[in-house]
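Re: beginner question about structure tokens

> Can someone show what the tokenized structure looks like for a real chain? I only ever see the sequence side.

Sure, here's an example I had lying around. Input first:
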Amino acid sequence: VQLQASGGGLVQAGASLRLSCAASGRTISMRAMGWFRQAPGKEREFVAALRWSGASTDYDDSVKGRFTISRDNARNTVYLQMNSLIPEDTAVYFCAASSRVFGDMRVQSTYGNWGQGTLVTVSS
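And the corresponding structure tokens:
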């Protein structure tokens, strides 16, 4: 599975952005997709995830209520709608895909395929 993330940019605090992650290749094997982010000088961390079957979702507490993960089955694309952005959301955002039926969606090792990352910068 190949993943192509897009949609990052420079915005002011309070603004919104929508990230996209388009999957190609052996997409039939996908069981979950997630978004992670890595801020400057910090480790990569979980943001949100979605199971392909049943569409259950999970969010980190820091984005709950502001971010929404969704999917478009026909396009094999997952979106991350980010509202009420704050400077602390500044990071490179990565999408990831997992072929595992079971596994903690918050854990990076659950995912076997990663996109290249898209930079989100939120100015105060």
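Each token stands for a local structural state, so reading them left to right follows the chain. The first strand starts at residue 2 and ends at 6.
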